[in-house]
Each structure stands twice: as C-alpha cells, then as structure tokens.
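Section 5.1 Outputs to date
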Amino acid sequence: MSADTPGSLQAKHVVTCFLLRNSSILLLKRSQHVSTFKGKWAAVSGYIEADADRQSLVEIEEETGLLPTDITLIKKGELIEVEDIQNGVRWVVHPYLYKVIKDKPVRINREHDEFRWIKPAELGIFETVPGLSEALSSVLTI
C-alpha cells in the first residue's frame, strides 16, 4: 500500500542511533517536549531531513553534545518498519551503531528528561519506543 492510499499509514523516515561505550549503550527518556512517545526510553533519534548518514551525526550532537570527532561509526543496520496505528504512521527506522571514542560527558537537551548507560541485554526491562529492540538487533548481536 503506498503512502498516499486512503487509510494507509504515512511513512516517516527516522534515524535511531545507538551509542556504545564500555560495552554499554545509551538510552534516553523522552520528555514532555517531544511530539510522540513521551516518557518512553529511546536511543538518539530524529526525522531524516535529507541524508540519513548526516542526520545521524546531527541528532547525536543535538541530543548528547557529542561531536562527530567523539564517535566512530561501527555499523548501519537494515531498515526496520514499525506500524504505529495510534499516530497513523509507518516509521521507517534507519538504525546506526556508533562507538564513543572520547571520554566526554553526555549533555542531554530538552527532548529528554534523563539518560542511562545500560548493558544491551537490559533493554527489555525498559518501556521503550516501538521497534527499539529490533533496531538494536540490526546493529548489535546481543
């Protein structure tokens, strides 16, 4: 079904960027200032405005304060599609895994209330945005 078919879900492309440091990944708790999934845990994410690779770096800098020189790309995952009936969206997720190579503190912006570094196997104990586990599996063997 195409995105312009009546009754179909609108496709929206987003990046989801996992940051890896000392065998832990960064999770961010979405604040009340975001439009979707308030209070849910997520990785760094954002709408793709042009190029997904470039957008991943932009979102990481905006949401964590880490610069492109602070991280290195490990893997780009296969696209994940998540049907979100409640919001009328089919999220097309472009997953990324970056390794943090400089020991700098994370500085979150108003899109998030808190952050935690967790072991990937702990992801299941968090209330996450839809498809986060699948996106992580596409870039990291748990």
